[in-house]
Amino acid sequence: MAEKKNRKVWIFAIPLIALLAYFIWDSYSQPSIKDLPGDFEEVAFVRNEQNKGGIIRVYAVTVGDAMNAQYDKCADLFPTNDYGSVTKVFFFDKTKPFPTKLDIEEPHYDLKQYEAINIQKRYGSQK
Question: What is the pTM of this model?
Fold first, then answer.
């Protein structure tokens, strides 16, 4: 009788352990900006504090290989939320000065001191 009970536990436990192992593997194997061509590196981030309106996220990312960089794919990896949120990603040449601090208010960084080589925006869906 104990063998049947033990066997039922293992029949349930083995698939559960396999499923948990898959979830852990999947969560740690997600692509990041470092996996894309272009030698991307996030150097600054700011997000608005209030959650009554849309969430605004602003990122500064340096690019080491601007000729082969996949800006669209890189910007797609940054989060967006629903209900009017916006994610702005500013790309800067790694060999030139770039901001390490951003402001939530536009223009987000000193335009006289830094020059973005590409700007991508992603908007959340309107539900």
Answer: 0.77
